[in-house]
Design a protein that fits this description.
single chain; globular; eight-stranded mixed sheet; 10 helices; alpha/beta
Length: 267
C-alpha cells in the first residue's frame, strides 16, 4: 500500500507539472507548428519522470539514436498498454496519432490535446485524404510522428494486423519508418506469464481506471524497446510498407517470447 501511495503522489506531481506546462504553452505559443513540437518535448520530459516514479525500467536496443538524430521518422509500434505512450515518449520527443474516440475521453482526451496529438476518425473514411495530407505535411515539417496501426491496444498475445491507410503519408513524404517492438519482459522482477500480461494490457473491454490500478499495484515493470532497422520508403507503396513493417515487428515480438520458455508461448 505504501509503494502504491508513493507512486500515486510522485507520478501525480509530475503529471500536474505536465498539465501546467501544456496549459501555459497553449496560452502563450500561438504558432501551432512550433507549439506541437514544444508539446512533444514536454511529453518527453514528463514521460521519463513518470516512468521512474512508477518504477518502469526501459531497456533499449536501438539502431538509430532517435533523440540525437537530425532526421525525423514515422515511428510505428505494436500497442499493448497506455504505458507504451510513455515508453516511446521517453526515448524521443514525438507526436502521436490517436483516435477521435480518445479525443472525446474526459481525461485522456485532455491529456492528448495538451500533449500535441493528432486525431483520426477510424469509423469513417471520408476524412482519410485530409488526415493523410496532415500527417504527410507534419513529416515534411520535421516532426517525429508515432502510429499504432493495430488501431487499439490489445491483450499482448500477438501483434495484430496493421491498417495500411496512414502509411500513405510515408510514401508521399519520402520519410523513413522506424519500427518499434515493445516487449514487456518482467513484472516485480519475475519473467512474464500469460496471467501477467492481463495485468498490463489495456483492452477495449476494460475501463482505464481499472487498468491504471493494476499498473499501480505492481512494484516494478521491465520493458524492452527493440528497433531492429530503419525502413526506407522510396519507391514502395503503402501496402508494401505496411506489410513489411508488420512482419518486422511481429517476428521480433514472437521470436523474443519463443526464446523465453517461462514467458508466453505462441501458436
Amino acid at each position: 500500500m505504501a509503494v502504491k501511495f508513493r507512486k500515486v503522489i510522485i507520478s501525480g506531481l509530475y503529471l500536474a507539472q505536465f498539465v501546467f506546462r501544456g496549459v501555459l504553452l497553449r496560452a502563450l505559443v500561438f504558432d501551432k507548428e512550433l507549439r506541437h513540437k514544444i508539446l512533444a518535448r514536454s511529453v518527453h520530459i514528463s514521460s521519463r519522470r513518470i516512468l521512474d516514479a512508477l518504477n518502469v525500467r526501459v531497456e533499449k536496443e536501438c539502431i538509430p539514436n532517435l533523440e540525437n538524430s537530425n532526421e525525423n521518422y514515422l515511428i510505428v509500434s505494436n500497442h499493448i498498454s497506455f504505458l507504451d505512450i510513455l515508453v516511446i515518449s521517453s526515448i524521443t520527443p514525438v507526436n502521436f496519432i490517436t483516435s477521435v474516440e480518445m479525443k472525446n475521453h474526459p481525461i485522456l482526451g485532455y491529456l492528448t490535446r495538451i500533449g500535441g496529438s493528432f486525431y483520426t476518425e477510424r469509423r469513417s473514411h471520408h476524412r482519410l485524404p485530409e488526415e493523410i495530407e496532415l500527417i504527410t505535411n507534419r513529416l515534411k515539417a520535421g516532426y517525429n510522428i508515432c502510429l499504432f496501426p493495430e488501431g487499439t491496444s490489445n491483450d499482448g498475445l500477438e501483434v495484430r494486423q496493421f491498417r495500411s491507410s496512414l502509411f500513405e503519408s510515408v510514401a508521399q513524404s519520402g520519410k523513413s519508418i522506424v519500427p518499434i517492438c515493445l516487449k514487456y519482459t518482467a513484472l516485480d522482477n519475475h519473467p512474464l506469464s500469460p496471467e501477467d500480461v492481463k495485468r498490463i494490457a489495456w483492452t477495449n473491454a476494460q475501463p482505464f481506471r481499472e487498468n491504471l490500478m493494476q499498473i499501480l499495484d505492481l512494484e516494478s515493470i521491465d520493458v524492452k524497446v527493440d528497433i531492429p532497422m530503419v525502413i526506407k520508403s522510396e519507391n514502395i507503396n503503402r501496402r508494401e510498407l505496411c506489410d513489411m513493417t508488420h512482419d518486422i515487428i511481429s517476428k521480433c515480438y514472437t521470436d523474443f517470447y519463443n526464446k523465453n520458455k517461462s514467458l508466453i508461448k505462441y501458436k
